[in-house]
Amino acid sequence: MTATERRPAGVGEPTGGTRTINLIQAVTEALAEELGRDPRVVLFGEDVGARGGVFMATAGLQERFGKHRVFDAPLSEASIVGAAVGMAARGLRPVAEIQFADYMGPGFDQLLSQAAKLRYRSGGEYSAPLVIRTPSGGGVKGGHHHSQSPEAYYAHMAGLKVVMPSTPYDAKGLLKAAIRSDDPVIYFEPKRLYRASKGEVPDHDYEVRLGEAAIRREGTDLSLIGYGGVMPDVLKAADALAAEGVSVEVIDLRSLVPWDRPLVLGSVEKTGRAVLVSEAPRTANFMGEVAYVIQEQAFDFLTAPVGQVAGFDIPYPYVQDKVYLPGPNRIVAACVRALNY
């Protein structure tokens, strides 16, 4: 089966028992299972120990695995990321939590100049198999210091992998794959889906391979592509269009670096139209890269310009967050423009 022929997400998965959990429970389970599976895995960050993290994603893990495996870090993101790089270079598998994606700035140089470059500057002698977990995005009335979507910064750093799940199944499987990866991974967690996104998760061990998108809904008239926190609204928009007789194919990227070019291009070649959705500001948005590749490699199949629905080029607003976020109405309007072109 080729990438462009891949089944919709959830079809053809291993059989066995499943449980319904939410996204943050999936994160906690993945961390617990990897701590139990591999003694090299350590988990640290601000308040992740006894308190269990600001969103309680690590609740109970210090008690279960001990203070030498799950521990608090100083209020210094630069130190957290720098320590993770050092641990990874010396053979551990650190998972570092940054309380909010907005706070990753102080660790920017450690990611850009150290984590992303270590394999290359050492000629392959060293690597940095670390994971930076961080809650990202808006929708929880966090204001402009707790609601930003900075994934494009890190997608631009050659040497890093970047992922953002939208379902419990993907949250657990992607985090396991990230921890087992030999490269540094930035793992963004859409905080507005922590408890809102619920779904079936298998009892058995599994991974979701980095770099593979998921088809959430098959269609023939238009490709609607998103990731992370916007996916519930993307699916609502697809439902609204279906009620009007429009067949929409919905793709969840899941992984931004690497991203699933074959699946996306195969979908666009089939439908001839694409609308891309994210909540980050429009300028230099990661979806701009997806749009470029579509027009570069699937131009002859397009019957309309590639559309994009995104946040606005302003700091995330506290009061007007429902206006800022790409809701179903804005998504449907962009799809109608593409369909009527």
From TrEMBL:
The lineage of its organism: Bacteria, Thermotogati, Deinococcota, Deinococci, Deinococcales. Its cofactor is thiamine diphosphate. CDD domains: TPP_PYR_E1-PDHc-beta_like (cd07036). Heterotetramer of two alpha and two beta chains. Directly associated with ODBA in the E1 complex. InterPro entries: THDP-binding (IPR029061), Transketo_C/PFOR_II (IPR009014), Transketolase-like_Pyr-bd (IPR005475), Transketolase_C (IPR033248). This is 2-oxoisovalerate dehydrogenase E1 component beta subunit. It comes from the Bacteria. One of its GO terms (molecular function) is oxidoreductase activity. Keywords: Oxidoreductase, Thiamine pyrophosphate. Residues 21-196 form the Transketolase-like pyrimidine-binding domain.
